[in-house]
Write a structure and sequence with these properties.
The chain is an alpha+beta fold and 321 residues long. The chain folds into two domains: 4-150, Gcn5-related N-acetyltransferase (GNAT) (Aminopeptidase); 167-317, Endonuclease, Chain A (2-Layer Sandwich), CATH 3.30.870. The protein is built from 13 helices and 16 strands. Strands 1, 2, 3, 4, 5, 6, 7 and 8 form an eight-stranded mixed β-sheet that branches. Strand 2 and strand 3 form a beta hairpin. Helix 4 (86-98) crosses helix 6. The termini are far apart.
């Protein structure tokens, strides 16, 4: 079944949007009406999926409280249309609407539905919590434009451990989307090797927050930064350096020992399956893998050899707090 989609603001939304939510959330799932109807409806775009005869089938809303982040919510499919691809088509439409508009998409998923959203590039980013008496998990997609492009020919795009196809990149925007998507799913380990911590690539607020979450996630979390040149970090403040100094037991930076063999290409390793590899130190050209355990194993051995021979940055240690 191929639905058609209509977009409304709340003031002009037809009663059928309210009717779908009433049937699914209030009548079926027993959500209290005072929780279902909230102020967010006033600022959201509301989408209605209808069949060829204009009969309502499903609805959802899309809104933003932060300029670069969109939120999908109140996604509901009427019982008689479930299992026919209506929810899938609606989510595809919402992702397409968000591509190029938002750098990040978030949603709150009922626990049983997380597998459905993973098929479209969303990964879990919270512990379980209760919402209106129903167990939920927060999920996010850190590169909606990439997910939108990939949905035509792959399932579970950008999902660590599940997306088995390599991603090629030749521009900085694509590379950063892949980088953040990998880091955002790191459970315990992040190893980075580069010539320097380039400010355009690594001195970014979102990346700092993602790396901070990795470092704090587990008592055995390990963030290793291995670079050739620390002079730019001394001359100009860097968010990762400031973070490293606050989380010194979880993050460490070392300088490559050029007297020992070293790699000629930069790379990043995430847990045991994620890799982002560049062909040149100064070009955004390379590939990323989200389920590349074999390649990661080979590269982690190389990283470990360089790490063991590396030395701490004395200049960074002497910087004032």
């Amino acid at each position: 079944m191929t639905p058609r989609f209509r977009k409304y603001n709340w003031q002009l939304a037809p009663a059928s949007i309210r009717d779908v939510r009433q049937r699914v959330f209030i009548d079926e799932q027993k959500v209290p009406p005072e929780l279902e109807w909230d102020d967010t409806d006033e600022i959201a775009d509301h989408y209605l999926a209808v069949d060829q005869g204009n009969t309502p089938m499903a609805t959802a809303r899309l809104f933003s409280t932060m300029e670069e982040t969109g939120f999908i919510g109140r996604m509901a499919v009427l019982p008689e249309y479930r299992g026919q691809g209506v929810g899938e088509a609606l989510l595809r439409h919402l992702i397409a609407e968000s591509a190029g508009r938002f750098q990040e998409l978030r949603l709150s998923a009922q626990n049983h539905a997380t597998g459905f959203y993973e098929r479209f590039g969303f990964h879990i980013c919270s512990e379980p919590y209760d919402d209106a008496g129903i167990p939920h998990l927060d999920m996010r997609c850190l590169a909606p434009s990439l997910a939108h492009q990939a949905l035509a020919d792959r399932t579970q795009p950008l999902i660590l451990g599940a997306d088995t196809e390599s991603w090629l990149f030749h521009d900085e925007a694509t590379m950063l989307g892949l980088m953040d998507s990998l880091v955002g799913q790191a459970g315990q380990r992040l190893w980075l090797y580069d010539n320097l911590l380039d400010h355009d690539l690594y001195d970014r607020y979102r990346l700092r927050e993602l790396i901070s979450a990795v470092a704090r996630r587990h008592r055995l979390s390990e963030v290793r930064l291995l670079i050739h040149d620390d002079k730019p970090l001394v001359k100009r403040r860097h968010q990762l350096v400031e973070l490293m100094r606050r989380l010194s037991s979880r993050m460490e930076l070392r300088l490559v020992n050029t007297d020992y063999p070293m790699e000629d290409q930069p790379f990043m390793l995430v847990d045991r399956e994620g890799v982002l590899y560049r062909h040149h130190f100064n070009k955004p050209d390379g590939f990323a893998g989200f389920a590349a355990s074999g390649r990661v194993k080979l590269m982690e051995e190389s990283f470990q050899r360089m790490w063991d021979a590396a030395r701490p940055s004395m200049e960074l240690r002497e910087l004032p707090l």
